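Make up an example, fold above all:
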Amino acid sequence: MIKIGDRLIGKNYRPFIIAEMSGNHNHSLERALHLVELAAQAGADAVKLQTYTPDTITLDVHTNEFFISNEKDLWKGQSLYNLYQKAYTPWEWHQAIFDKCEELGLLAFSSPFDETAVDFLETLNVPAYKIASFENVDIPLIKKVARTGKPIIISTGMATAAELDEAVRAVREEGNNQLVLLKCTSTYPATPENSNLATIPHMRELFDVEIGLSDHTMGTGVSVAAVALGATVIEKHFTTARADGGVDSTFSMEPHELKQLVEDTERAWQSIGHIQYGPTEAEKPSLNARRSLYVGEDMKAGDVFTKENLRDVRPGLGLPTKYYDILLGKTIKTDAIKGTPVSWELVL
């Protein structure tokens, strides 16, 4: 069990829903604050930012490997520097965004992308940290975050089991056991068939930590399936409207979809319950709708049960139907009218 702020995370608690703002503020603080309001209205538990600048995450180089030329890439035709210039959240906005979250009852934290970002976020007293998939092999950064003693959520996109083991060990070696791993597919958007959610219970068993999902698919279906498989945290990018544009808008949820995510994942969690055989308390009245054995015609004492006067019908207040063949040919003790439930007391 993990605690972030006043929110407990674990199988006994409804899923912890993180609304990832990323760069969907489109470089407007007003829009960023509005996104916080929308996340609160949708019922999210937390808003997450990303803390970096273009200069702390890449080099001001616009050629070769620093330029996105892959035709299939969502951000093709841009240099990494220019992309991060568009996407980053100005550090001077963080306090205002976090204050708005607190005002509306939301938790707020961020993904630091280098050690200076951790130092900055510590001045804001964030309740937790998120390590992004592309940083899950950055052991010095992970150790720096672990030393804060605060809960850490690590996305696992692209990471091998060995790489995840290194990350988990790095956290624990710093004396921090407050760790959540998020199953993640680092494509934007991701597809359901490439999500491999069967990894969730395996990852929980392998690393003995809480497991969630960083979900880049469209809709709520994959997140709901993840909760059914034991995910206790769901992270989704969100925006005011995909039509507004922005670096992450094409795979981000709109407010009504975020609200649906909150509702659907909670229903999925509620439905897991516990191992149950036999009728639940709520089902017990329905037992009367089972078939059972009834007297099908008026009978006199000494009459023999036949296929005509021994009926297998609803409701279920007579003997179970498994005794039908046994009772055929048996004698009834007393008079019985049509519609009498058959009991052993009636049989000689």
